[in-house]
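Lecture 7 notes: from sequence to structure.
We start with the chain below.
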Amino acid sequence: MYPLPPDSLYCADDANAIHAAVVRWLERAVIGLNLCPFAKSVHVKGQVHYKLSEALGVADLLQELESELRDLARMDPQDRDTTLLIVPDQFADFLAFNAFMERAEKCLRRLQLEGTLQIAHFHPQFVFTDADPDDITNFTNRAPYPILHLIREDSIDRAVRVYPEAEVIYERNMQLLQSMGQAGWDALEIAPAPRICPEPKKS
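Predicted structure tokens for the same chain:
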């Protein structure tokens, strides 16, 4: 059961389904296709923190992001190595989400956590700069929902030492997706979960 605050925006069934969809994407795509060789270890050790956003707007989301950044920075990496802040009900438009990242980076700098943490982002409609929207290689950064991935710089450094050819991961992922094609990606069945509750519990 995914833990929810008493006044949660989500019903328990929706929260559990969203959480399950993100875990399925992580296990089948990110880990299953080895898109990120560093992901399996923290997943197996239970060091990934999943936070379902309760934000009702951009300002609320920035407050949530600040809270999650602070929590990740102060916690022992053995307990929480990385955070996935999942945003199911905002940023249906990828360009708006991409623009939000400038404010997210400003938040990181304001907290003086640049060099300590990084923020990566995933989106159901992610498109690389200058790429065609239908290019299969975009799917390396596509997820069932908009996600802000908070990452420790130290963890990246350790992973790179273990995986010395980290710079070739990007190219390898592009080649893999091209060989799979759309049909291969669809076969992973990692679409967002259908919502069960007819409308949010908050207005």
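Points to note: Residues 12-186 form one domain. The chain has six helices and four strands.
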